[in-house]
Amino acid sequence: MILGVIEYEDNMVTEASLQMVTFARKVAEGNGVGFVALVIGCKDCAPLTGQLGNYGVAKFIQAGHDQLTDYAPVAWAKVVSQVITDTSPAIVMAAGTDKGNEFMAHLAAMSDQPMAANCSAVNPGDPFQITRLRWGSSLLEEAILTGDCKLLTVAMDVVEAEEAPVQGEVDVQTIEPNLTESDLRVRLVRREADVTEGVTLKNANVVVGGGRGVGSPEAYSLLEELAGKLNGAVGCSSVATNNGWRPHSDQVGLTGTRISPALYIACGISGAIQHLVGCKGAGKVMVINKDPEAAFFGKADYGVLGDLHEIIPAVMEELGK
Ligand SMILES: Cc1cc2nc3c(=O)[nH]c(=O)nc-3n(C[C@H](O)[C@H](O)[C@H](O)COP(=O)(O)OP(=O)(O)OC[C@H]3O[C@@H](n4cnc5c(N)ncnc54)[C@H](O)[C@@H]3O)c2cc1C
Q1: Which superfamily is assigned to 206-320 in CATH?
Q2: Cα–Cα distance list, 81 to 4, 9, 34, 58, 100 (Å)
Q3: Which CATH fold would you assign to the domain 2-184?
Q4: Nearest Cα residue to atom 11 of ligand 1
């Protein structure tokens, strides 16, 4: 049996978890085994039941505890560990999100088993073969997963969430896990709505990104002015966030936001792979850099060699005309 741990927001299964359920359902069907979903700490599971039924889930376990009302990494791992003891699944899957990779890593450490993150394919024979996305999806790793119960997360967007051709009644089993106070020490206590309005990094048609070459937090006003003229948003490299010049929400890249504007103007950014994976969805890339050897020029549609502090004002002057 495959056990799939479900993530949810506002009492609805997340898109990443629906993709994981679709992936798991196909692996289960291909190998003649069952699939059971596990929902942890959800207050109102009724909407989830309907949704999971549409995606072919015939059985789900609801783990409820009065102290566990939202995400808590160690507690979630402990709940999964108890369900493994009770149901002996061959595979446990979760979505390859930050949360999924976090609680599954806790589970792996707790149960002294290996865990494979961000799998794009699974062949559960002997040996148990997997393909993993690494380096921001620029590398495919073929690996063998060992362990009594195979623990893995499914990379996001490798399958589309697909409703099942056959949908039926969902059998819901409720359990109360044993948790201690220390299991709940790290837990989500409050959610705040994103109040960003208008153009954001995610939806901007033009993004002006700045890196170490911008030189100071104050100098970002130049990039803001350019972005303003183009009705765009400002992004940055990790150096800018690490230096405290910009908030982390502005970071583009592997550990930041993935952007897909029509035009990305990268100013004073060298073009490290971890940054490039965040902007590979851009339609066109324009690089402004004073180093002709900067790697970013190799990925650019347009390259301007020179000091950004001179080039950006010149671009704005032309735009003004
Ligand atoms: C696990 C991991 C995750 C990471 N995730 C991210 C991520 O999400 N996003 C990210 O950005 N990085 C990430 N990084 C860091 C990444 O490897 C690079 O270190 C970082 O992107 C470099 O930032 P930078 O280009 O601003 O700085 P640098 O590499 O120092 O480049 C600065 C560039 O500015 C140019 N320059 C300097 N002055 C000027 C000027 N006046 N005019 C024009 N050009 C000028 C220089 O020629 C140089 O090319 C990650 C690294 C690791 C290991």
Answers
A1: TPP-binding domain (3.40.50.1220)
A2: 13, 23, 19, 22, 14
A3: Rossmann fold (3.40.50)
A4: 237
